[in-house]
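User: Please predict the structure of the protein below. I'd like the answer in structure-token form so I can feed it into my own downstream comparison script.

Assistant: Understood. Taking the following sequence of 66 residues as input:
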Amino acid sequence: MTTLFINIRSLVGVRAENVLLRGAALAELPCINDAFLLVENGIIAAFGPMYELEIQVPDLPAVVMD
């Protein structure tokens, strides 16, 4: 099942890579305001700012949560 969450006010804790954080890096909490999140079979498939939605998800799924 594919679900697309749109118009998320703030998607918090997004990082480009999965790395072990230490020291000052633990104080950083990256976020994306006005975001979308695409979940396919319980796994995050894509996320980003709403203005990139049509680029990253060209075929919208049947289930869209606003």
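That's the full token string. Residues 13 and 30 are 5 Å apart (CA to CA).
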